[in-house]
Amino acid sequence: MATVELTFSALPAHVRTARLVATAIARRTGVAEALLDEVRLAVGEACSRAVEAHRVHCPGEPIRIELCDDSGRFEVTVTDSAPSDDLEQAYKDEDELPVAVNGTELASLLPADTLMSGFGIAVIAALADDVEVYPSAKGLRIRMSWPAAASGIRAV
Amino acid sequence: MDLKLDHHTEDRLTIVEVEGEIDVYTAPRLRELLIDLVNKGNFHLLVNMEKVDFLDSTGLGVLVGGLKRVRAHDGSLELVCTQERILKIFRITGLTKVFGIYASVEEAKEAHGRDK
Protein backbone atom coordinates (compact mmCIF):
# COMPACT_ATOMS: atom_id res chain seq x y z
CA MET A 1 0.00 0.00 0.00
CA ALA A 2 1.36 3.43 -0.97
CA THR A 3 -0.18 6.58 0.35
CA VAL A 4 0.19 10.25 -0.49
CA GLU A 5 -1.07 12.66 2.13
CA LEU A 6 -1.78 16.32 1.56
CA THR A 7 -2.91 18.94 4.03
CA PHE A 8 -4.04 22.39 2.97
CA SER A 9 -5.46 25.54 4.53
CA ALA A 10 -9.20 26.07 4.11
CA LEU A 11 -8.85 28.38 1.12
CA PRO A 12 -10.95 27.91 -2.05
CA ALA A 13 -7.84 28.42 -4.21
CA HIS A 14 -6.30 25.22 -2.81
CA VAL A 15 -9.18 23.02 -3.95
CA ARG A 16 -7.89 23.15 -7.52
CA THR A 17 -4.46 22.00 -6.33
CA ALA A 18 -6.04 19.06 -4.48
CA ARG A 19 -7.99 18.11 -7.63
CA LEU A 20 -4.85 18.21 -9.77
CA VAL A 21 -2.82 16.11 -7.31
CA ALA A 22 -5.61 13.53 -6.96
CA THR A 23 -6.04 13.24 -10.73
CA ALA A 24 -2.29 12.90 -11.31
CA ILE A 25 -1.96 10.13 -8.72
CA ALA A 26 -5.10 8.38 -9.99
CA ARG A 27 -3.53 8.29 -13.46
CA ARG A 28 -0.25 6.90 -12.10
CA THR A 29 -2.16 4.33 -10.06
CA GLY A 30 -3.82 2.99 -13.20
CA VAL A 31 -7.34 4.41 -12.95
CA ALA A 32 -8.89 4.28 -16.43
CA GLU A 33 -8.72 7.53 -18.40
CA ALA A 34 -12.52 7.51 -18.71
CA LEU A 35 -12.82 7.66 -14.90
CA LEU A 36 -10.32 10.47 -14.30
CA ASP A 37 -12.92 13.21 -14.81
CA GLU A 38 -15.06 11.50 -12.18
CA VAL A 39 -12.14 11.37 -9.74
CA ARG A 40 -11.39 15.04 -10.38
CA LEU A 41 -14.99 16.13 -9.83
CA ALA A 42 -15.63 13.93 -6.77
CA VAL A 43 -12.41 15.01 -5.03
CA GLY A 44 -13.22 18.63 -5.88
CA GLU A 45 -16.70 18.27 -4.37
CA ALA A 46 -15.37 16.71 -1.16
CA CYS A 47 -12.66 19.36 -0.77
CA SER A 48 -15.05 22.24 -1.59
CA ARG A 49 -17.44 20.99 1.06
CA ALA A 50 -14.63 20.73 3.61
CA VAL A 51 -13.36 24.24 2.79
CA GLU A 52 -16.84 25.75 3.19
CA ALA A 53 -17.33 23.93 6.52
CA HIS A 54 -13.93 25.05 7.82
CA ARG A 55 -14.53 28.67 6.80
CA VAL A 56 -17.66 28.63 9.00
CA HIS A 57 -16.36 26.64 11.97
CA CYS A 58 -12.56 26.53 12.08
CA PRO A 59 -10.78 28.59 9.37
CA GLY A 60 -7.35 28.06 10.96
CA GLU A 61 -7.49 24.26 10.84
CA PRO A 62 -6.08 22.36 7.85
CA ILE A 63 -8.00 19.86 5.70
CA ARG A 64 -6.40 16.47 5.08
CA ILE A 65 -6.60 14.35 1.97
CA GLU A 66 -5.15 10.83 1.68
CA LEU A 67 -4.65 9.14 -1.68
CA CYS A 68 -3.98 5.45 -1.51
CA ASP A 69 -3.62 2.53 -3.92
CA ASP A 70 -4.59 -0.67 -2.24
CA SER A 71 -5.71 -4.06 -3.60
CA GLY A 72 -6.41 -2.81 -7.08
CA ARG A 73 -8.37 0.25 -6.00
CA PHE A 74 -7.55 3.94 -5.86
CA GLU A 75 -8.92 5.27 -2.59
CA VAL A 76 -9.32 8.92 -1.57
CA THR A 77 -10.19 10.06 1.95
CA VAL A 78 -10.97 13.71 2.69
CA THR A 79 -11.09 14.61 6.39
CA ASP A 80 -12.23 17.90 7.86
CA SER A 81 -12.33 19.20 11.43
CA ALA A 82 -15.65 21.04 11.32
CA PRO A 83 -18.57 19.73 13.41
CA SER A 84 -21.15 18.15 11.12
CA ASP A 85 -24.21 20.03 12.40
CA ASP A 86 -26.20 19.38 9.25
CA LEU A 87 -25.45 15.67 9.40
CA GLU A 88 -26.34 15.42 13.06
CA GLN A 89 -29.63 17.17 12.23
CA ALA A 90 -30.25 14.66 9.44
CA TYR A 91 -29.87 11.86 11.95
CA LYS A 92 -31.80 13.43 14.80
CA ASP A 93 -34.42 10.66 14.70
CA GLU A 94 -31.89 7.86 14.71
CA ASP A 95 -31.14 6.04 17.95
CA GLU A 96 -27.43 6.41 17.43
CA LEU A 97 -25.15 7.82 14.80
CA PRO A 98 -23.94 5.11 12.42
CA VAL A 99 -20.20 4.61 12.07
CA ALA A 100 -20.26 4.76 8.29
CA VAL A 101 -23.02 6.08 6.11
CA ASN A 102 -23.78 5.29 2.50
CA GLY A 103 -23.33 8.49 0.47
CA THR A 104 -26.60 8.29 -1.47
CA GLU A 105 -28.61 7.53 1.65
CA LEU A 106 -26.97 10.40 3.50
CA ALA A 107 -27.64 12.90 0.71
CA SER A 108 -31.32 11.95 0.69
CA LEU A 109 -31.55 12.51 4.46
CA LEU A 110 -30.00 15.96 4.47
CA PRO A 111 -32.26 19.00 4.89
CA ALA A 112 -32.90 20.85 1.62
CA ASP A 113 -31.19 24.04 2.79
CA THR A 114 -27.80 22.39 3.26
CA LEU A 115 -27.09 22.85 -0.43
CA MET A 116 -23.34 22.47 -0.44
CA SER A 117 -23.27 19.47 1.89
CA GLY A 118 -26.18 17.57 0.41
CA PHE A 119 -25.65 18.48 -3.22
CA GLY A 120 -21.91 17.87 -3.15
CA ILE A 121 -22.24 14.52 -1.40
CA ALA A 122 -25.01 13.49 -3.78
CA VAL A 123 -22.71 14.26 -6.71
CA ILE A 124 -19.87 12.26 -5.10
CA ALA A 125 -22.24 9.32 -4.52
CA ALA A 126 -23.12 9.36 -8.21
CA LEU A 127 -19.49 9.53 -9.34
CA ALA A 128 -17.60 7.05 -7.15
CA ASP A 129 -18.79 3.46 -7.09
CA ASP A 130 -17.90 3.09 -3.41
CA VAL A 131 -18.53 6.01 -1.05
CA GLU A 132 -18.72 6.10 2.71
CA VAL A 133 -19.26 9.14 4.89
CA TYR A 134 -18.23 9.16 8.54
CA PRO A 135 -19.89 12.07 10.38
CA SER A 136 -18.81 13.03 13.90
CA ALA A 137 -18.73 15.98 16.26
CA LYS A 138 -15.02 16.39 15.45
CA GLY A 139 -15.48 16.51 11.69
CA LEU A 140 -16.51 14.62 8.60
CA ARG A 141 -14.56 11.98 6.72
CA ILE A 142 -15.50 11.06 3.16
CA ARG A 143 -13.90 7.93 1.73
CA MET A 144 -14.37 7.10 -1.93
CA SER A 145 -12.69 4.70 -4.31
CA TRP A 146 -12.40 3.64 -7.94
CA PRO A 147 -10.98 0.56 -9.63
CA ALA A 148 -7.31 0.81 -10.61
CA ALA A 149 -5.53 -1.38 -13.15
CA ALA A 150 -3.07 -3.87 -11.73
CA SER A 151 -0.47 -2.55 -14.19
CA GLY A 152 -0.66 0.94 -12.70
CA ILE A 153 2.50 2.54 -11.35
CA ARG A 154 2.55 2.66 -7.60
CA ALA A 155 1.87 6.12 -6.23
CA VAL A 156 5.05 6.37 -4.17
CA MET B 1 -6.68 27.59 -15.64
CA ASP B 2 -8.42 30.58 -14.14
CA LEU B 3 -11.87 31.77 -15.16
CA LYS B 4 -12.34 34.22 -18.03
CA LEU B 5 -15.67 35.98 -18.42
CA ASP B 6 -17.01 38.16 -21.22
CA HIS B 7 -20.46 39.18 -22.39
CA HIS B 8 -22.26 41.01 -25.17
CA THR B 9 -25.88 41.61 -26.06
CA GLU B 10 -27.52 40.74 -29.38
CA ASP B 11 -31.17 41.57 -29.93
CA ARG B 12 -32.23 41.44 -26.21
CA LEU B 13 -30.23 38.24 -25.64
CA THR B 14 -27.13 38.65 -23.48
CA ILE B 15 -24.49 36.07 -24.31
CA VAL B 16 -22.09 35.30 -21.44
CA GLU B 17 -18.85 33.67 -22.61
CA VAL B 18 -17.22 31.52 -19.92
CA GLU B 19 -13.76 30.00 -20.26
CA GLY B 20 -11.80 27.95 -17.71
CA GLU B 21 -12.80 26.31 -14.43
CA ILE B 22 -15.93 27.10 -12.41
CA ASP B 23 -15.37 25.93 -8.84
CA VAL B 24 -15.56 27.12 -5.24
CA TYR B 25 -12.72 29.61 -5.95
CA THR B 26 -13.93 31.13 -9.22
CA ALA B 27 -17.73 30.75 -9.00
CA PRO B 28 -18.20 33.99 -6.99
CA ARG B 29 -16.98 35.97 -10.04
CA LEU B 30 -19.59 34.35 -12.27
CA ARG B 31 -22.23 34.97 -9.60
CA GLU B 32 -21.29 38.66 -9.45
CA LEU B 33 -21.47 38.99 -13.23
CA LEU B 34 -24.91 37.36 -13.46
CA ILE B 35 -26.24 39.53 -10.61
CA ASP B 36 -24.80 42.65 -12.26
CA LEU B 37 -26.36 41.78 -15.62
CA VAL B 38 -29.78 41.22 -14.08
CA ASN B 39 -29.52 44.43 -12.03
CA LYS B 40 -28.84 46.29 -15.29
CA GLY B 41 -31.98 44.90 -16.89
CA ASN B 42 -30.57 41.95 -18.85
CA PHE B 43 -33.20 39.29 -18.22
CA HIS B 44 -32.50 36.91 -21.11
CA LEU B 45 -29.12 35.28 -20.61
CA LEU B 46 -27.33 32.64 -22.66
CA VAL B 47 -24.25 31.17 -20.94
CA ASN B 48 -21.81 29.67 -23.42
CA MET B 49 -20.03 26.80 -21.62
CA GLU B 50 -18.14 25.43 -24.62
CA LYS B 51 -14.78 26.57 -23.24
CA VAL B 52 -15.44 25.49 -19.64
CA ASP B 53 -12.92 22.85 -18.51
CA PHE B 54 -14.45 22.08 -15.13
CA LEU B 55 -17.77 22.67 -13.38
CA ASP B 56 -18.74 21.54 -9.87
CA SER B 57 -21.82 21.90 -7.67
CA THR B 58 -20.73 25.39 -6.60
CA GLY B 59 -20.93 26.44 -10.25
CA LEU B 60 -24.28 24.71 -10.64
CA GLY B 61 -25.52 26.66 -7.62
CA VAL B 62 -24.50 29.93 -9.28
CA LEU B 63 -26.32 29.01 -12.50
CA VAL B 64 -29.46 28.00 -10.57
CA GLY B 65 -29.25 31.28 -8.62
CA GLY B 66 -29.01 33.20 -11.90
CA LEU B 67 -32.00 31.32 -13.29
CA LYS B 68 -34.01 32.19 -10.21
CA ARG B 69 -33.16 35.88 -10.61
CA VAL B 70 -34.07 36.16 -14.29
CA ARG B 71 -37.30 34.19 -13.80
CA ALA B 72 -38.36 36.80 -11.24
CA HIS B 73 -38.41 39.17 -14.23
CA ASP B 74 -40.02 36.66 -16.64
CA GLY B 75 -36.60 36.17 -18.16
CA SER B 76 -34.56 33.14 -19.14
CA LEU B 77 -31.13 31.63 -18.52
CA GLU B 78 -30.09 28.99 -21.00
CA LEU B 79 -26.83 27.23 -21.77
CA VAL B 80 -24.70 26.23 -24.73
CA CYS B 81 -22.83 23.02 -23.99
CA THR B 82 -21.84 19.94 -25.96
CA GLN B 83 -19.00 18.68 -23.71
CA GLU B 84 -19.89 15.32 -22.23
CA ARG B 85 -17.77 15.91 -19.08
CA ILE B 86 -19.78 19.06 -18.29
CA LEU B 87 -23.17 17.68 -19.36
CA LYS B 88 -22.65 14.72 -17.04
CA ILE B 89 -23.01 16.80 -13.87
CA PHE B 90 -26.22 18.36 -15.23
CA ARG B 91 -27.58 14.84 -15.85
CA ILE B 92 -26.49 13.52 -12.42
CA THR B 93 -28.29 16.36 -10.67
CA GLY B 94 -31.37 16.34 -12.92
CA LEU B 95 -30.71 19.91 -14.01
CA THR B 96 -31.03 19.03 -17.71
CA LYS B 97 -34.77 19.37 -17.05
CA VAL B 98 -34.32 22.83 -15.55
CA PHE B 99 -32.03 24.50 -18.09
CA GLY B 100 -32.49 24.80 -21.81
CA ILE B 101 -29.24 23.37 -23.20
CA TYR B 102 -28.27 24.02 -26.82
CA ALA B 103 -25.53 22.70 -29.08
CA SER B 104 -24.48 26.13 -30.35
CA VAL B 105 -25.05 29.85 -29.81
CA GLU B 106 -26.75 30.00 -33.21
CA GLU B 107 -29.18 27.24 -32.26
CA ALA B 108 -30.01 29.02 -29.00
CA LYS B 109 -30.49 32.35 -30.77
CA GLU B 110 -32.89 30.76 -33.23
CA ALA B 111 -34.90 29.21 -30.38
CA HIS B 112 -34.88 32.53 -28.52
CA GLY B 113 -36.15 34.30 -31.65
CA ARG B 114 -38.99 31.81 -32.02
CA ASP B 115 -40.03 32.29 -28.37
CA LYS B 116 -40.18 36.07 -28.52
TrEMBL record, chain A:
Keywords: Kinase, Serine/threonine-protein kinase, Transferase
A UniProt-annotated Pfam family: HATPase_c_2
InterPro entries, per the entry: Anti-sigma-factor_SerPK, HATPase_C_sf, HATPase_dom
PANTHER family: ANTI-SIGMA-F FACTOR RSBW, ANTI-SIGMA-F FACTOR RSBW-RELATED
Membrane-traversing stretches: none
Domain (Histidine kinase/HSP90-like ATPase) ranges: 8-146
Molecular function terms from GO: protein serine/threonine kinase activity
Designated name of the protein: Anti-sigma regulatory factor
From TrEMBL, chain B:
Entry similarity comment: Belongs to the anti-sigma-factor antagonist family.
Pfam families on file: STAS (PF01740)
Organism: Sphaerisporangium album
Main function: Positive regulator of sigma-B activity. Non-phosphorylated RsbV binds to RsbW, preventing its association with sigma-B. When phosphorylated, releases RsbW, which is then free to complex with and inactivate sigma-B.
Keyword Phosphoprotein attached: yes
CDD domains: STAS_anti-anti-sigma_factors
Database matches in InterPro entries: Anti-sigma_ant (IPR003658), STAS_dom (IPR002645), STAS_dom_sf (IPR036513)
Positions of the STAS domain: 3-112
NCBIfam families registered for this protein in UniProt: ant_ant_sig
GO MF entry, a single one: anti-sigma factor antagonist activity
Keyword vocabulary terms for this entry: Phosphoprotein
Protein name, as recorded: Anti-sigma factor antagonist
